Please model this.
Amino acid sequence: MRQYSSGNDIIRVIVILGDFVLLSILIMAFYYLLPQDMLPVYFKSSIKEVLLVSNFSMLIAQYFFHTIIHFRKIRLNVIFLRVLKLTFAQAIIMFVALRIISDGGGLFQFMLIFIPALYATLLIARLTERNVLKFYRKRGGNTRNVVFVGSDPANLMLYKDLIAEPTTGYIVKGYFSNDVIEDCPDEFVKLGSIDDLNKTIESDNHNILVKKVHQKDDSFRLDLIDEFFCCLSHDESEEIIRIMRFCDNNIIHFHYVPRMYGNFRLHLKPERFGDMSLYTNLREPLTYMSNKIVKRLFDIVFSLIACILLLPFIPIIGLIILCQSRGPIFFKQERTGLNGKTFLCYKFRSMHVNSDANTKQATKDDPRKFAFGEFMRKTNIDELPQFFNVLVGDMSVVGPRPHMVYHTEHYRKLIDKYMVRHFSRPGITGWAQVTGFRGETKELWQMEERIRRDIWYIENWSFWLDLKIILMTFTSFFKHDKNAY
Model:
């Protein structure tokens, strides 16, 4: 039996020790480089005690907010937030402790300088450590060998996620299945059938020969695999149990991958019901009152500022619209909102008045658009009046884009889970729009992908995700989106 070790714990310990070293260096740098009148009185006479208190404070802070860069899939915004929490936890504990054992003369003023300096130091170190770790994994260190079981499309989706970023350190050996996975890339090799897998499991050496496409044959021991990802139906429970036992006996991590039904993966999340564990297909963060309050307060403040800033420009924009096209300045349309209720959505009118406005999407060379209207659509200026919708509560700054009622009735019959997107307030911008799925949907798969991303947003909402989407939307003002028409 081999000893299981991912190497991640070692990396975590090294990074944490590095934080203590950097903290001590930063304290000493302030001690020697800052003018004496900017140092707290206690620092001048008791620098050793200050170092002891600051490192003890870091020890407590690390217990709650230790590094997470050793995780193989981690977003930058999570790292930024984690370092921020670590910095403030250490600084608060350090401030309180020093205030208790000293008179605190000059300590508060010092902390105002120390906190941003510590955050910048730890953040630069964390990003550097992350890049070093990525380079190390890219060169073959700290890797994880992976095998898939089953031909369900969910395995293919997971495979693409694992190899999307080579620096995460996953090495996919292939998959076992009785059937071939459709649209499978050559690199995702079929290792054999389920019977071949069972024979390999029951053999003494667990050796398997891989016939790679366009490469020389390779072999490996199945019991030296680090991760098993299994996506079989419940009818094949005996096979799943057999694989789980093999993984347990060889200290291999086993993962059951939820199958896909239609175009959607069955995302089941655990919840407690008495002493039983149940699973639900939807558990949105915005069902919690605290999250609702945070999102609504942000919407009110953000939209109020936007509306005030927009007011002086309405007469100018309105005058240009009237000069190029007869009709109203604002375009209003019934759209589907929260819980499937309709509301009037407002925009600056970007097209000539026409009878197809409530049924037909805008196209690239749409003759209904006038010159300034096309400019507004490309720069998202036509959407600005929707901040009034946000202010009154019909919309949110970020959320699934509201569809016209005609499209809601049309697509709800064609796309599974289409109406799930209405568990959230519609937004001026959304995750689907900033990831390449805005504008016209010429084919059904485009709308299906947009709905999939809308549902992902609802299931993974966070305040920081909203800020990220707003930032990505803001950049579209300066970088033209080919789908913006």
Q: What stands out?
A: The chain has three domains: 8-138, 144-261, 287-475. The chain is about 50% helix and 15% strand.
